[in-house]
Specification:
Strand content: 25-35%
CATH topology of the largest domain: Aminopeptidase
CATH architecture of the largest domain: 3-Layer(aba) Sandwich
Number of strands: 19
CATH class of the largest domain: Alpha Beta
Low-confidence stretches: none
Mean pLDDT: 89
Helix content: 10-25%
Shape: globular
Radius of gyration: 23 Å
Length: about 450
Amino acid sequence: MLHLRVSADEPGIAVLAAAARAAVASRNGNGDAAGLVLQLVGLDARERSRGGQDDTHIELSSSVDGTEVILQVRDRGEPLNGPAPTLEPLLELGVMTSARAFIEGTGNVTEMRFAMPSHSATLDSGSLEVLGVDTPLSSEEVTMRSLVAADAASLTRCIYRSYGWTYPHPDLYYPERVAASITSGRRVGEVAVTADGEVVGHWGAIFLTPTLVESGLALTDPRFRRRGIAAQLQARVTERLNNSDIVGRVGEPVLTHTATQELVLRSGGAIVGAYLSYGVPVAQVGITDGMLAGRRSLAVHYIEVKPMTEATLWIPRAYEPFVRMVLAHCDWPRSFGEVHRMGDTPDETLLDTTLDSFNKRGEIDVRQIGLDLIEVVDTALDSLRRSGAEVVHVRLPANDPALAVLGEGLTVLGLAYSVMIPSFSEAGDALVLQWIADPEIDTSSW
């Protein structure tokens, strides 16, 4: 791990870029790309440090997370609410796998991720065959057990046999990424395996926060369907999660058929909204007639795992009817607050922005609501749009009374209701809004 501190001047920025180049190249990544990016980040930090601050230094640290090298730059210049604008074209070109920026403590943090060679190593499908829905069923015995890192390559083969290259979670075609997420504990799951250890069924979960998971990611090899394998794997995953520290589960039932939506409702869950235009078009084998005509949309559900504590929601008037519709079908201990006057509210809004360049989807996570909420969110939205985002989600702390007043102007930014997720994090419930480049949503396959 690298750590250094340099002056925010030309010689210091040159050292910063050289150190970044060496850190990424030492892991066989694109060191030259890292050097260029850090040169731009350093110049941006220097520009923001020209206001007379006592500390005009820049700090760089590096670490490895699975198949990526993480570079973090810290500065004490003027606050930032997104990566430097000069990084936008590089993000769109995929020079970095992702970049985000946020305020931590008394300084700014810009975090960039660079791929190591294993990050881009996809499944070798040369000897594999996509199995159609009319494939003869097998009677071979299977064993069910927990997913381990050594299953990663076999899991990707199972996905290919079942869906070809059309599975809507593209990360699962990269065995090393899958293995890294299992090793880190971010991904858990249950699998059905044959006697030779080949995965033929899977049901899993990804930790979104320490107490909230996204569950699902289900598939069964066509040869092993109609045996109840998926239901058994789901039951095993559910039992594991219910015995853990998580408080809730979210999932994204597809809108192209009703089976997964019905499964959620039978399990006691609630549909809390939808992610419209969520990702690039895919083909769902056995469901859709070839590739979807437009970007795919997904319903979103929430299942309570631990009993909720009472909480008050402070929702801007434009979005309150949608949240009331969600709560009308639930017995969650939630009430709506009424703001009569503004309490003490910070001047500055603190947020974190990220961009998924593959799906052209941006995220803005508002961690603190300040008096400048609308201005700061508008700036972050504009930055993500210029970086190629076709949809942006804005996550807001729904238990903060300031949201009901300061959030009134969010509709002016073109933000519509998306979902309401209770107990999202330590900050409480989250109201998620969405901006969509093309609001004409194709619903023909729903």
